[in-house]
Amino acid sequence: MFNSADQITSTARNSMTSQLNLATSLTGSMLESMEKFMGLNLQAAKATVENSINNAQHLMLAKDPQEFFATSAQQAQPQTDIVLTYARHLATIASGAHFELSKVAESQISESGRNVTDMINELSKHAPAGSENMISTFKSVIDNTSSGFSQLNRTAKAAVEAMESNVNAASSQIAQATAKTSSRSKK
Q: Cβ atoms within 10 A of the Cβ of 98, count?
């Protein structure tokens, strides 16, 4: 089949190297995204604790129930802003993670596909008569895998866009509701 065992070894080595590069790149991207997510959560926790302490101090200074409720209503807006900011940052992290993972996966899968196609082409040159159907099946599997990845990538992109759209819509609704609540409490 092959001219030498070196061709088989070289093809296998290229394939393994490509797979290792894919795993390394995906792991790096995932760790970076998790680091951003954990940092966001720490910032949100810190802001929430500081805001809660500040709010409690202001509520304790209220001289009567009316002032207490007015102060309480005024404190709702900053809390809403923190939640909205958190949601926007989370959507940005998710979008960035999707972009990075897609870029890495697309590059590595393309390279892997080329390596496998090269191996199949090399096999087909030296394959015995009658093996054309098997080689055609292998090529079809490679093409279907590539098409499946493309569809998965489009679906994931649509999901991230839908999430961003939902976060923006929820942000608008929350901001409107908070504004209505604030205006009612001032009356």
A: 19
Q: Give dist(CA 42, CA 37) in Å, integer.
A: 9
* Count of other CB atoms within 10 angstroms of residue 55: 17
Residue-wise pLDDT tens digits, 119-163: 777 777 777 778 788 878 877 887 787 777 778 778 877 887 887
3-class secondary-structure state, position 129: coil
Question: For 16-49, how does the pLDDT look when each residue is reduced to its tens digit (9 = 90+)?
Answer: 887 788 788 888 888 999 999 999 999 989 988 8
> 90 is in which domain, residue-wise?
5-186
In whole angstroms, give the CA distance from residue 117 to residue 102.
22
Give me the number of domains the chain comprises.
Answer: 1
Nearest to 157 by CA among 90, 92, 99, 93: 99
Instruction: Please say if the pLDDT value at position 93 is more than 70.
Output: yes
CA distance linking residue 164 with residue 98, whole number of Å:
12
Give me the amino acid identity at 111.
E
CA atoms within 13 A on the CB side of 168: 7
CB 160 within 8 A of CB 95: yes
